Amino acid sequence: MTDTTKPVAAAPATADVPPKRDGFMASCRELDMLAGRINPTPSTAVIGSMAVVTLVASFVLNEHVLSAIDHRAVFIIGSYVVFSSYFVIYYFLDKYSSSFRSVATDKRFYTISNLIKTGMLAAITPFSIQGLIKIIVADNWETIKIRNLGCLYAIPDFVSLLVVRRMQWTTIFHHICVCLFNYANVNNDYANVNACRLIVVYAIFSVFAYSVNMLLASRFLGFARQVSRYLSGVALVIYVSCCAINWSWQVYYWIFLWNRTPWDWTLIAYASAIVPIVYDDLYLNRWLLFNFNRLSKPPTAAEIAAEKED
Question: 3-class DSSP state for residue 2?
Fold first, then answer.
C-alpha cells in the first residue's frame, strides 16, 4: 500500500519490461534511473536519523500515545509533526545534496514520503503484531489502542495527499479510503462485532508494507544491484504472504459477519470500498515480482547508459 506517482519520463522499452501502460512500473523504473544521481551520504544520514527517530518514537508511543483518550488530538498533532518533517528532511537534502536539487520537486517529495512512511510504519509494527495476535488468538479487541494505532497509520497517507503531487488515481483513492476508514475507526467501539473489525485487520497487515516503502526509498542510496535484488526479494515474500493471509481472513470474517446480519449496508459498503485497495495491492505485488526478476537479469542497455552518465 505505498505511494505511486506518474512517471516524468519512462525508460526505453526492453524485452524484460512490461508494456508502457503500466504507469506504476514505469514510474519505478524511472526511480531506478534516478537512483545513481542522488548522493548517498546525505540520504544515508536521513535513513540513519529515521532509524533513531523510529526507535525513540516506538518508546514514546508505547509510554504516552497508544493509551491516549483523545484520539483526534493524536491525529492532529501527529499530522503536524509529519507535515513538518517533510520540510526538515527536504531542507537537509536540498542543502547538502546537489543531485537531490536536480530532481523534479514532485519526485523529491515522493522520496521523502516513502522515508517518512517507512519510519512511521516501522515504529508501530511491534504494537501491530501484538494487537494482531490478541485479535486472532484471543479475540481481544483493545478499543483505545486500536483507535490510536489507526490514527498513526492514517497520518502518512493524509499528509501525502497534501504534499505529494501527481499521484495515480488508485493511490489517491486509497489514501482517501484510509482517511475515511480512520474516521470510522475513532468512532467505533470494538467490543461490538461489526465491519470496522475488518478494517482494523486489513490495516494491521498493511503496516508490514513498510519494507516496500523502504525498498522504494533505498534506491536513492546507491545500493549494489545484488543488495537491491535481495531487498526486493524480501519485500516480495513479506508482502505476498501478508496479502494471502489477510485476504483469507477478510473473506472468512466477512462471511461470518454476513451470516450474523445479512444485507448489512456497512458490509456492502466495505466490500465496495476495499476493491480498489485490493487492486492496488495486486498491482504492487505484480511490480515486486517484476522488479525482482529484472534485477536477477544482467542490466539493460538503458540502465548501463544511466550508470555511465553518473
Answer: coil
197-213 confidence digits (pLDDT tens)? 999 999 999 888 777 77
Collapsing DSSP to helix, strand or coil, 5 comes out as strand
- The Cα–Cα gap between 141 and 191 comes to 7
Q: How far apart are the first and last CA of the chain?
A: 31
Q: What residues contact 105, with CB distance under 8 A and at least 6 apart?
A: 165
Angstrom distance (rounded) from CA 249 to CA 230: 29
- Those residues whose C-beta lies under 8 Å from the C-beta of residue 98, and which sit 6 or more positions away, are 39
Gap between the Cα atoms of 251 and 202, Å rounded = 11
Q: How far is CA 2 from CA 75, 216, 271, in A?
A: 20, 9, 21
CA distance linking residue 223 with residue 44, whole number of Å: 11
Q: What burial class does residue 21 get, using C-beta atoms within 10 Å of its C-beta: 0-12 exposed, 13-18 middle, 19+ buried?
A: exposed
User: pTM score, two decimals?
Assistant: 0.77
